[in-house]
Specification:
Largest sheet: 6 strands, parallel
Number of strands: 12
Shape: elongated
Number of helices: 12
Length: 347
């Protein structure tokens, strides 16, 4: 459902207050808010940080019906396989709906994970009728901005829990974790470790919970030392794998909660002279193109990313027409894709 600020909402800080906080003139702050390009990068940074810090909400100066055929797709980066799959699915559904799609990369601030808000200002100038969000993380003030401007939005595969009532589309992560663990159990593995993403994030927690459920159903102990977190970072996954290999009873199989992290896992195993799958089996999650290029090709749980984006676009079209979805959360099924990286334990 689209949430908008009520008529009695508390007024936020004025542009003059923002300008004073950032140490700039009001006209300069206005240029940043309105997406003008003729502002120095350092000045833009100070103003955007002040906007976020003070919770400034720009009052809409356009009717969203001004550009009813235009929607924005905002992703964390444009050079990742995941973003490419999102773009393919969203573009296909947009074309079917007769919509034009504008793609933006909401790059993180230097030294942080939170995205800049420049894309919000550009969105204001364009007057887009809706937004698809494929971001790792939004700030509370950015969600508030969209709500108070009355712009419908749908989140694709949220890494962090979005605000209550947010419409989102994702994969059946719990069932995917079950499928991965059950595949390894069926091969005869009992010492199965998991290299998870961010600790406590919904998608990662669900995959780990599915893994644990499968082990419990098989009558096996859930060993805390067999669950490590690597934040979806291949380099950190490499280090966490090295730590697992140092355990008194190292695992014979690894469930890695993303294909990108599996690349780091492969590196760690190669450094130890271990062969996949003869010495240790590896299963990933996503079925990105990288999973087919590894040696050996990676067994993985397919997350239907393109289909998720297409579904999100169709939900967004309904919201733009004023139709509230029956459920705020839509989950699409995952599928186990068997390749050559898993086999029965050698010992």
């Amino acid at each position: 459902m689209v949430r908008t600020a009520g008529a009695g909402a508390t007024a936020g800080p004025t542009l003059a207050v923002v300008a004073r906080e950032a140490g700039v003139s009001v006209p300069t702050a206005s240029k940043v808010v309105n997406g003008r390009e003729d502002v120095a990068p350092e000045t833009r940074r100070r103003v955007t940080e002040a906007l976020d810090r003070l919770g400034y909400v720009r009052r809409p100066r356009f009717d969203t019906s001004r550009a009813p055929g235009l929607v924005d797709l905002v992703v964390h980066a444009l050079d990742a396989s995941w973003s490419g799959a999102v773009l393919r699915g969203a573009e296909r559904a947009a074309r079917e709906a007769g919509l034009d799609l504008v793609v933006s990369a909401a790059l993180p601030r230097s030294g942080g994970d939170r995205p800049e808000r420049d894309w919000l200002d550009r969105l204001t100038v364009r007057g887009s009728a809706g937004v698809l969000l494929g971001l790792a993380e939004l700030t509370d003030s950015q969600y508030t901005w969209l709500e108070q401007h009355g712009i419908p939005y749908v989140v694709i595969d949220p890494v962090l829990e979005p605000p209550p009532g947010t419409v989102s589309v994702g994969a059946a992560n719990w069932q995917g974790g079950v499928s991965a663990a059950e595949h390894l159990l069926a091969l005869g593995h009992e010492r199965i470790a998991v290299v998870a993403g961010h600790s406590g994030t919904p998608c990662s927690a669900a995959r780990v919970a599915g893994y644990r459920s499968a082990l419990t159903s098989a009558g096996l102990e859930n060993r805390p030392e067999y669950v490590v977190h690597a934040g979806f970072d291949p380099a950190l996954a490499r280090r966490r794998t090295q730590e697992l290999l140092e355990l008194p009873e190292p695992p014979t199989a690894l469930f890695v909660c993303s294909d990108r992290m599996a690349l780091g896992v492969y590196d760690a195993l190669a450094e130890r002279g271990l062969s996949v799958p003869h010495d240790i089996s590896v299963i990933g999650f996503d079925d990105l193109p990288e999973s087919r290029w590894t040696a050996p090709p990676l067994t993985t749980v397919r997350q239907p990313v393109a289909e998720m984006a297409a579904t999100a676009l169709r939900l967004l079209v309904r919201m733009m027409d004023g139709d509230r979805p029956e459920s705020t959360r839509t989950e699409l099924s995952t599928t186990l894709v068997e390749r050559a990286s898993t086999a029965p334990p050698s010992g």
